[in-house]
Design brief:
7 helices, about 55% helix, mainly alpha, 2 strands, two-stranded antiparallel sheet, Sufe protein. Chain: A, about 140 residues
Amino acid sequence: MTIKETIDQIVSEFGYFDDWMDKYNYLIEMGKSLPMIEEKYKVDSNLITGCQSRVWLHADLEDGRIFFTADSDAVITKGIVNLLIRVFSGHTPQEIVEAHTDFLDSIGLKEHLSPTRSNGLLSMMKQMKLYALAYKTKLESDAS
């Protein structure tokens, strides 16, 4: 499934809920299925700066695709990071770098989060794109 197809699916899923509390609960449920980071990666260098909660994010490159794992000490943040992992994980660095993230506005996520959580969301997304950019550069360097 492409990033756009995943995003369309997420927008559709959030469209089932009329009330923001239902969407919030859905995010919490998503957090329960978060691909968990190995303990060895729960180090300060993998902490997302700018988050109200502690969020660890790790990326591995396998066969030209990036796979993310994460953890957080807050249930809603686990849901948010899992939402982003669902969108980006398993895709090439190029696809992740080029991906549009305006779907977060479409589902109303940014407007219903506290300012600190909203900043954390942007920091998570930025870190995922930075991982993708670093792996893209590495792949291009290895190819030449």
